[in-house]
From TrEMBL:
It comes from the Eukaryota. Belongs to the WSCD family. This is WSC domain-containing protein. SUPFAM superfamilies: P-loop containing nucleoside triphosphate hydrolases (SSF52540). The lineage of its organism: Eukaryota, Metazoa, Chordata, Craniata, Vertebrata. PANTHER family: SIALATE:O-SULFOTRANSFERASE 1 (PTHR45964:SF8), WSCD FAMILY MEMBER CG9164 (PTHR45964). The chain crosses the membrane at residues 17-35. The keyword Ion transport does not apply. Keywords: Membrane, Repeat, Transmembrane, Transmembrane helix. Residues 131-223, 234-328 form the WSC domain.
Length: 569
């Protein structure tokens, strides 16, 4: 009996040794394969760019500073990523700007001027044809902008031509690009020029084209058009308005021009980067809307015509009137935005049914408060167009409020309070169907409206419109009801109510600035509708019944009922 046991023990010992040997061999084989792959990558890089001249023995780079900044942003560190790939200068072009600056700071301190010029020559920038003339690279920061006109962002498709077209359509002479994705416009460059090499980022949508850098702006001139031949989009007549009692408080700039016309006054105010152009007889004024000149109480048009034709014979004590035009210039008093300086302990929802205008209200809240809004979801299209809070974790506490379309009890009770945005179900259903068929800015075709998808959509989504409101009224802890249509007609008072609910102090000038810039980048152009009524009598019967139910629930919850235009007649 002892002999078989002895043989079994020997067999097990040999099996353990054999398995250990196989494991070691497997690990060694894998290591060899990885080394070969790494060698292949280095060889390929060396083939595309000439090798650097041999370097002297290098001291250790500032790892502690580099790793602490990397890890604080949740980005992993890969061993050898800063030192091992020295075959070419391509490793200097990291996508992470802060890491790249750390590399440059350390690397430049070790290289001679001759070596540095060799690196710069080894990574030539591909010449991309530009629409306008390149002016150079300029300093830029959030407090002192090089160009102080309008701002737009596209983290995916930004090109120099896109930026120049945007600035040209708004009447600006210069277009500047920064961080590869941000576009700034202006008529005056107010900062110092630096070396062109410091604008070292490519445009997100056009590789090889300079799009600024970190705190650096690549500036172009837009197509030069003679005065009087320019055609601007979005110039609109605001109306006739009475001159304020204290005209000096409106900070109007008087522009003297011979042979004054409305076109020449508008061009003069665009050149001076003002959003308002005002005419009074032979005088042209430029400025902003202010608490003393809100443009909320227009006068009869006949007052402007009489004042302009007979002003010389009018007594000086008689009130005078302005003809006011909105220029394409963006009011820059409310364009800077940031995350909350301290983590908020209160989680506020901005809740709405899809298609109710949630994105537009987020845009208004960001303009009015200066803080980013977040989202329960992640929409890459919105993030690419400047909604930076879209990518932030929705419970981070760094955003002023959080977009959501959810309406279950569990999801509702996660929030401390809610801004409940309600829009007419007829308009909401049309807007959401347009988005589903053609994206944020597109329109569904007549073919889409005539398919079976539309009645199925109404059958399921109409009841959701009602249940969404009813659930938030029932389970929400602290609810502010905002009607989309009332926000359109009385924007400043509604925004004042929203910012007060958010416990944020906002100046009246900032609210007026938000009103001036209210359209944003996600407003569908025109009012394109299907050529026929898409709502059948059965659909209307269903929707009208839901409208009555929601109206009654609002009144029972001590809120004002739905606007009269919602209610069926």
């Amino acid at each position: 009996m002892a002999k078989p046991l002895y043989r079994l023990q020997r067999f097990l010992r040999r099996t353990q040794l054999f398995l250990l040997f196989l494991g070691v061999a497997y690990i060694m084989a894998g290591s060899v394969l990885l080394l070969q792959r790494a060698n292949l990558v280095v060889t390929q890089r060396g083939a595309t760019s000439p090798p650097l001249s041999s370097l002297p023995s290098l001291p250790s780079p500032p790892w502690a500073l580099g790793i602490s900044q990397i890890m604080s942003r949740g980005q992993g560190y890969q061993p050898g990523s800063l030192l091992d790939n020295r075959t070419g200068a391509r490793w200097l072009m990291s996508r992470n700007l802060e890491i790249r600056h750390l590399r440059r700071r350390w690397f430049h301190s070790l290289m001679t001027e001759k070596d540095m010029s060799h690196v710069e020559r080894s990574t030539p920038r591909r010449n991309v044809p530009q629409k306008g003339s390149y002016m150079g690279c300029f300093l830029d920061n959030s407090k002192e902008r090089a160009l102080r006109g309008s701002v737009s962002t596209d983290f995916r498709k930004m090109t120099s031509t896109m930026c120049q077209d945007t600035c040209s359509a708004s009447g600006y002479q210069f277009a500047g690009l920064e961080y590869g994705s941000e576009c700034y416009c202006g008529n005056h460059i107010t900062s110092l020029r630096v070396r062109d090499e410091e604008c070292n980022l490519d445009c997100k949508g056009e590789k090889g084209s300079p799009c600024g850098g970190v705190g650096r702006l690549s500036v172009f001139t837009v197509e030069d058009v003679l005065p009087g031949q320019r055609r601007y989009r979005n110039v609109r007549y605001r109306g006739c308005f009475r001159e304020p009692d204290n005209s000096s408080s409106t900070s109007l700039v008087h522009v003297l021009q011979p042979n004054l016309t409305s076109q020449s006054c508008i061009e003069a105010c665009i050149n001076k980067e003002f959003p308002l152009a005002m005419l009074r007889s032979s005088d042209c004024f430029c400025g902003y809307a202010t608490p003393d000149f809100t443009l909320h109480e227009p006068a009869e048009e006949e007052h402007c015509s009489q004042s302009n034709t007979t002003e010389a014979s009018l007594p000086s004590t008689l009130q005078r009137f302005y003809q006011v035009y909105q220029t394409p210039v963006q009011d820059s008093r409310c364009t800077e935005r940031k995350f909350l300086p301290e983590k908020s302990s209160s989680l506020v929802a901005l809740s709405s049914f899809p298609g109710a205008g949630n994105t537009w209200v987020r845009h208004l809240i960001e303009l009015a408060t200066g803080y980013y809004t977040g989202s329960y979801y992640f929409d890459g299209t919105l993030y690419n167009r400047g909604f930076k809070g879209e990518k932030d974790y929705w419970k981070s506490g760094r955003t002023i409020c959080v977009k959501t379309h959810e309406s279950g009890r569990r999801e509702i009770e996660m929030y401390d309070s809610v801004i409940l945005l309600i829009r007419s179900p007829y308009r909401s259903l049309v807007a959401e169907f347009n988005r589903k068929c053609a994206g944020h800015l597109g329109y569904a075709s007549d073919h889409h409206w005539k398919t079976k998808e539309w009645p199925e959509f109404v059958g399921s989504y109409a009841s959701w419109w009602a249940s969404h409101v009813l659930d938030w009224l029932r389970f929400g802890r602290r609810v502010l009801v905002v009607h989309f249509e009332e926000l359109q007609t009385t924007l400043v008072p509604q925004l004042r109510s929203i910012t007060s609910f958010l416990n944020t102090t906002v100046t009246e000038d900032r609210l007026l600035c938000a009103e001036s810039n209210q359209d944003g980048h996600f407003k569908r152009s025109g009012v394109r509708q299907p050529t026929f009524d898409p709502f059948t009598p059965d659909m209307r019967g269903l929707i009208d019944g839901l409208i009555h139910a929601v109206d009654q629930a609002l009144r029972d919850s001590n809120h004002t009922g739905l606007p009269l235009e919602y209610l069926p007649r």
